[in-house]
Amino acid sequence: MSEDHCASSALVSTCPECLSRGPACAWCYQEDFLDGAHASQRCDSAANLLRKGCSENMMANPQVRVEVNATLSSSQVAPRDVSLHLRPGAESSFVVEVQQLERYPVDLYYLVDVSASMQDNLDRLKSVGVALSHSMREYSSDFRVGFGSFVDKPVSPYINVHPSKIQNPCSDYEVQCRPAHGFIHVLRVTENVTELTRVIDQQRISGNMDTPEGTFDAMLQAVVCQKDIGWRPEAKHLLLVMTDQPSHLALDSKLAGIVVPHDGKCHLEGNTYVQTANMEHPTIGQLAEKLLENNIYSIFAVDQLSHWSYTHTHTHTHTLTHIYLPFRVCVTMDSAHVQRFWVNVATVCPDGSSRAGSSRCSNVQPGQTVFFNVTVGMTSCPADDVDEDVLLTVQPVGFNESVAVRVKQTCGCDCGLAGRCHDNGESGSCGAADEEARLAGHRQCQAEGSGTVCSGRGSCVCGMCVCHHGNLGAVYGKFCELDDFSCPYQDGLLCGGRGQCVLGECRCQTGWTGESCGCPISAETCRSNDGILCSGHGRCVCGSCVCDEPQRSGRLCDKCPTCYSSCQTHCTDTNKSVSVIRKKSVSNIDQILIYLKVFFFIFIKQRHDVCRERNSELQYNIVLHL
Questions:
Q1: Rounded distance, CA 271 to CA 548, Å?
Q2: Please, which residues have CB within 8 angstroms of residue 468's CB and are 6 or more apart in sequence?
Q3: Which of 39, 66, 225, 413 has the fewest beta carbons closer than 10 A?
Q4: What is the pLDDT of residues 315-352, one digit of tens each?
């Protein structure tokens, strides 16, 4: 945000209003600031206020800060506690490190579709389920497993409601099937893999009428029924869903006359989901919220035909050998504050790749670390102006550890020990009762001896000048008689670009002086290699040598063709050379030739007799530098 934005409006008349314009704005509460100018002139960038005479310790200019509490230890997620100090328009970033330990406790729950089309897959699970559970122990020495089954809602039109079909949906095929069910919790998570084998062997298929299954309905119960399932708080939770068909969605329930939305609660009685026929299928958003809330990572073991339907519902499909690979985080906050904040996450994966705007890494092995750069921005203050803390949670999906982020909103002003901000909350109206009061106020806006209100560069509001903001710069002062642009220019820049215009005069940067800050204070540019100033024959003025004698020339007053006798200058030993003043343009060749002719005529030919004895040995090597 531009610094000019702070002082671009006369409507800014209070300190909180000034700070709300952006992180570049500051408020000066110095009592004698700008000789009684209107309160709006107190709002500007800190640099501009400093140049106008406001002391740095008399500014309300809260800074953005990040505070990390390093006292809370964590085995997988760090840091665990972060505090951000933000003001409107500001943003701040912090880094979250997530590492999957190699021997971290793991709970795996099998949720298996036992409809008739899953017969082959169920038989295959019986043969590989135990081997799979044993292979999981390579990733965790504290591994537990559970089991549950589902089909669909046991109501028409999802199943055949003929009495003979309810108890045995496969009676037409002379096969004994179990009744259809929404969800049955079979085995609580346990270390006993042999018990898992026994449970899988006892499973029988069921049947239903339509193609989709009640997958999401059963998943929600497996997620929220924490005590029944046996999810351990300290473990990583993996929900493995095995099916060969897509899932019903929320509105599908209306086909069966079910119109009651799912309440997202656990409804297990005797390990059976008892409300499956009374409540709708959960929405995808509702299911995703419960997965995050209970730190459960869902894994879908599906065939190729059903792969699309699950990957497009914001879930994650991976083979069992890769259940540790995907890493991602989710940031949550109270919905009451969502409109005033924004969050961005950039990921740095173990292979060094960086993904801006992405909160996910793949191909992460146990022991590797993923870095999430989280940026939080604040757009505005709360409507009630209450500076209460806002809580955010950064949750790595599937982990039972998270980062608590406390955002401290800076919306008020701390105007020193006295608490006086010298603002004006009534700048828009002074309550003038009549025309006489209005004219009296205008007279207070005129400088002594001037009949112009606010110097013609502002408006009189309640007896005080509110200066206009022009394109050239800021206008200020009690009568708007001051500005920061009516100073000399050099090379097209105000104060040569080496100073600031204050009260019509250039205040130069360190090392510069002059009316337009065009003169360096240092005399180093006037010194020769031996350290002598202007070769001892001049003065250093504005970074250049001014020679004391008119016959001397050169950048350092080191050239003087007429300062010596002719023989001293020209009757020299053999191989001495005379250098002609360097010229910078080829277009000056004619002038150089004329100069040479005059040079030879005056300093060589007229002295021919004096140097006759040595003239035969004299050689002149004239070097032209173009």
A1: 108
A2: 10, 457, 458, 459, 475, 480
A3: 66
A4: 333 344 444 445 777 888 887 788 899 999 888 888 88
Among 584, 530, 534, smallest CA distance to 554 is for 534
Q: Cα-Cα-Cα-Cα dihedral of 539, 545, 549, 551, to 10°?
A: 170
Residue 534 C-beta-side C-alpha neighbours within 13 Å: 18
Q: Which of 6-10, 68-72, 104-108, 480-484 has the lowest mean pLDDT?
A: 6-10
Q: Which of 219, 32, 23 is CA-nearest to residue 109?
A: 219
Average pLDDT, whole number, for the chain?
79
Q: Cα separation of 51 and 475, whole Å?
A: 14
Per residue in 18-60, pLDDT (tens digit) is 888 888 899 988 887 876 566 777 888 898 888 778 888 899 9
Per DSSP, 62 falls in state: P
Q: Say whether 436 sits in a helix, a strand or coil.
A: helix
Residue with tokens 């010298």: 422
HEC sequence for 525-581 = HHECCCCCEHHHCEEEECCEEEECCCCCECCCCCECCCCCCHHHHHCCCCCCEEECC
Q: What is the pLDDT of residues 454-505, one digit of tens each?
A: 888 888 877 778 777 667 777 777 788 777 778 888 888 888 888 877 767 8
Quote the tokens at residue 619: 């050689």
Q: Classify residue 590 by its DSSP letter.
A: H
214 Cβ partners below 8 Å, 6+ apart? 150, 151, 152, 153, 158, 182, 183, 247, 248, 276, 281
Joined together, the tokens standing for residue 401 give: 């550890």
Look up residue 279 and give its two tokens. Answer: 């409540």
Q: Which pairing describes strands 327-333 and 360-361: parallel, antiparallel, or unpaired?
A: antiparallel
User: Positive or negative, the Cα torsion across 538, 544, 546, 550?
Assistant: positive
Q: Which two tokens stand for residue 57?
A: 């310790």
Q: What is the DSSP letter of 133?
A: H
Give the C-alpha separation, 197 to 200, whole Å.
5
Q: Cβ(107)–Cβ(237) under 8 Å?
A: yes
**Contact, 291 vs 398, CB < 8 A?**
no
Instruction: Tell me the three state secondary structure of residue 162.
Output: coil
Instruction: Determine which helix (DSSP H) or strand (DSSP E) holds 460, and give its type and residue range.
Output: strand 458-461
Tabulate helix, strand, coil % of the chain (nearest 5): 25, 25, 45
Residue with tokens 């300093």: 603
What burial class does residue 394 get, using C-beta atoms within 10 Å of its C-beta: 0-12 exposed, 13-18 middle, 19+ buried? buried
Greatest C-alpha distance within the chain: 145
Closest CA to 85 of 405, 333, 395, 414: 405
Q: How far apart are CA 469 and CA 110, in angstroms?
A: 70
